[in-house]
Amino acid sequence: MTERRYDLDWLRVLAILLLQLFHSAMPFVAEWDWHLKNKETSNLMMECTLFLSRWRMPLLFFISGVGTFIVLKHVPVKKFLWQRTKRLLLPLLFGMVVIVPPQVYFERIYKGAQYTSFLDFYTSIFTTTVYPEGNLSWHHLWFIAYLFVYSVIAIPIVLFFKSIHGQKLVDMVATFTTRFGMISYGMILFVASLLYFWYPNETHAFVDDWAGFTKYFLYFLFGAFIGVHPIFWAHIVDNRRQNFKLAFFGTILINYFRWNNIEPDWAMNVKYLLFFALMVINAWFWVITFLGYAKRYLNFNNKFLQFANEAIYPFYILHQTFIVILAYYIIPVKEDILTKYLFLTVISSVLSVGCYVFLIKPYKATRLLFGMKVKPSLQHCKT
User: Which of these, 148, 103, 154, 75, lies nearest to 348 by C-alpha position?
Assistant: First the structure.
């Protein structure tokens, strides 16, 4: 793989735009807790976000695994680590001390905390423990933290994939896949997901998050393992309709059990294990479905993608902060949920794009802090 994979760029952009819709819905979603919640909530909105939650982040980690293999194939390990530090670790640290604190502040005052000002609150992120007990957090930037760790610990694995013996293993598995399909990867994910019985809640904080950490790491490794081999891609593209059917009818079956109140209770028994396997494998088939259709129809470039591909990372870093701040002021307003949701989605998107265009894109310093490539022709940020 030496050509630019525009289909993966499109999927990355679309997945993060869906994340914007997802987080804008969270104040109004029934049953799920979030930083700020509207008095009235929606079960139907919860169904939409539940569907997105099954495959959106796995898809992003898979794409990241593909990118990691490609980069390590062309640059030395030291340069790769330096690139990952600038691309991931620096924006994470900057986000934790600049971007995320307003989210925690508005959540605290919404729930009754008494601060005289934001500055009064801000010092507490350095004097209290980590969130939720304290005020230091990475909130939605957990994806960056996990991706940085995955990138580091996957180096010896990816280097093995690049070796002669590793390539023989990949070729052998690729041949197996062409004969028996890709459900075996879903079964691996299911076995790993049994960790949820011991770590049922995804904390996104490394601590007590072994189930979520393992699941996303597997998607990352699958991206590095199968996402760069032409036989795998040919299989994913050629079987996209079949994978779509399996994903589609699997989702119908899952919701049949859920909506008719015959979903098995959470327990280590045969009934629930079968249902759990259905959910895990169904998510995998959605991921490879999107990969197959994108490879077939979205492997092209245009002006929108050129803009979005560079803007989407700063957009991701910024978007939830604007959502939380706006939600604080929108929630008390006497309007229906749909009106609030549309307003919150549109305005937070406009603010995120506006900050990127006017404050981040033109300056070297801000580009560096948001994990973007610094172009020599750009001016320095004036302070």
Answer: 103
